Amino acid sequence: MSETAQADPVPAAAPEAAPLLEVRDIGKYFGSVIALQGVSTQVAPGQVCCVLGDNGAGKSTLIKILSGVHQQDTGEYLIDGEPIRLANPRAALDRGIATVYQDLAMVPLMPIWRNFFLGSEPTKGRGPLRRLDVAKARDITRRELAGMGIDIRDPDQPVGTLSGGERQSVAIARAVHFGARVLILDEPTSALGVKQAGVVLRYIAQARDRGLAVVFITHNPHHAYPVGDRFVLLKRGRSLGDFAKSEVGLPELTRLMAGGAELEELSHELEREPQA
Fold it and tell me: Any idea where the ABC transporter domain is (predicted)?
């Protein structure tokens, strides 16, 4: 190459996706009780934001604000960069914010396809001849679950015969089918064994890879870290930090979650005295 030849310019890094959901210094009070104070984080399409904390940390209050059950008393809640105040859960759904709670809102004795739709079943015919389109409902259920990597044996089997992880996966696929852009998951792995928790984490990754913004509420850093892009730690309603994955490793996340200095002090108390 001649001395005057120019090297090819280095391509600029792709800009990071803008947050789809963001909260800034969110606070909520019930009388004199501080349920949540000064909590900030964000999640973009194709990302997972993990909210970690023990019981009483404020996770449930944050979920209820994000899903429209409560309104924040302080701070800002933004969707697509626009400040909003959600009047109710219907307003959240209209914005594409779907919440999957621990109880899953399923009817165990009903078939999988009925639980997939729950009041929004497809119909055919008009007027007095309108009736449920069972074949279409079954086909959509099977197709949507397959798109999430879920292979069901029979869409007519009662949903109560599924494992806990499989029921979580049906709820996640249902939210995706009905247009969720933000998926809020309330402790989806808390009552599951190791294998079933792994099943749910795989479906969370599937939702992320389909471009959804996922808010994953959990008390288990070992479940959060493999799928998470951001981590918010809550303790007694306050934030201990909002970290990108590049800023915190699993050991540090676990230490913060466990209480750090408090855990070290407890371990000293529990140690046996050396035997003579």
Answer: 21-261
End-to-end CA distance of the chain: 78
Which tens digits make up the pLDDT trace of 117-167? 987 888 887 877 788 888 999 999 998 888 777 778 789 999 888 888 888
Domain extents for the chain?
A: 21-107+164-169+179-265
User: DSSP 3-state assignment of 245?
Assistant: helix
Exposure class string for 203-229: b at 16+ Cβ within 10 A, else e: bbebbbeeebbbbbbbbebebbbebbb
Domain at 21-107+164-169+179-265: CATH code: 3.40.50.300
How many CB atoms within 10 Å of residue 253? 22
> Which residue from 105, 111, 119, 109 is spatially nearest to 145, judged by alpha carbons?
111
Distance of alpha carbon 50 from alpha carbon 254, whole angstroms: 13
Those residues with Cβ within 8 angstroms of residue 202's Cβ, 6 or more apart along the chain or in another chain: 149
Verdict on whether the full-model pTM lies above 0.90 = no
- Say if CB 237 and CB 35 are below 8 A apart: yes
DSSP H helices in the chain: 59-66, 89-94, 112-117, 134-147, 164-177, 194-209, 221-227, 250-258, 261-270
Distance CA 16, CA 181 (A): 18
